[in-house]
Design goal:
83% of the residues lie in helices and 0% in strands. It is mostly helical. It folds into 2 domains: 62 residues; 154 residues, Four Helix Bundle (Hemerythrin (Met), subunit A) (Up-down Bundle), CATH 1.20.120. The longest helix has 39 residues.
Length: 223
């Protein structure tokens, strides 16, 4: 295939890729697969006797326009983005429930007077939020598997609802967790010098960024 014919294929794929949003690795894999398919189709047309330029144009025409192809590709990317978000949420919620208790275990203020009832309510709410998020994550994984086997509209709608719930839980959990840490520092000055607390704040912030990145990818993929 000449350089001009390759440019025709690459331009077609560039236009398609420009319409897609989602996990970068999968997007690159899809474009690589499409490129191989186009090149194989062009080669088959050349083997049948068509000139190289006509073979490339015929292969591109058979492949479909970017507007025709984008919805199917985007649906696959959105499903992969939901899988990534669900997996991260399950890992985050499970790890956070264990690490959260370790943050306070053995602290110098744990044997002192109990905190205000509103503080205890907020602390309990954080646990409820992440417990619910863990269940939403499991539901998201189940819906990804089911939607992968059947593209029924009802399953697609449920998968989108799971993504919305996971994104909302991630945002709500981040706000509630930040409020709990801030309140803890106000109540106990020693919290700022307590190593598990410091490690917990740094690790928690990094984990929230990690989770937020997956939520952002899903939002872009389903926009």
């Amino acid at each position: 295939m000449s350089a001009r014919d390759e440019m025709l294929v690459e331009e077609h794929l560039r236009q398609l890729a420009g319409r897609l949003r989602g996990p970068r690795r999968l997007r690159a894999d899809l474009m690589t697969e499409a490129r191989h398919g186009l090149l194989d189709a062009a080669e088959a047309y050349r083997d049948s006797g068509l000139p190289a330029g006509e073979a490339s144009r015929r292969a591109v025409a058979d492949f479909g326009t970017p507007d025709q192809l984008a919805p199917a590709y985007q649906a696959e990317l959105a499903l992969a983005a939901l899988r990534g978000l669900s997996l991260r949420m399950v890992a985050f919620a499970a790890t956070g429930s264990i690490a959260g208790d370790l943050t306070w275990h053995g602290s110098s203020w744990s044997s002192g007077p109990p905190p205000p009832s509103a503080y205890l309510l907020l602390s309990q709410s954080v646990e409820w939020i992440w417990a619910g998020a863990f269940l939403f994550g499991l539901a998201g994984l189940a819906l990804v598997a089911a939607t992968g086997r059947s593209a029924r509209p009802a399953l697609t709608a449920l998968a989108r609802g799971a993504g919305v719930a996971l994104t909302g839980a991630a945002l709500l959990g981040a706000v509630a967790g930040a409020g709990l840490f801030s309140w803890s520092i106000l109540l106990w000055d020693a919290a700022l010098s307590w190593p598990p607390m410091i490690i917990g704040m740094i690790a928690g912030a990094a984990a929230h960024v990690w989770l937020g990145s997956a939520a952002r990818t899903w939002l872009l993929a389903t926009r």
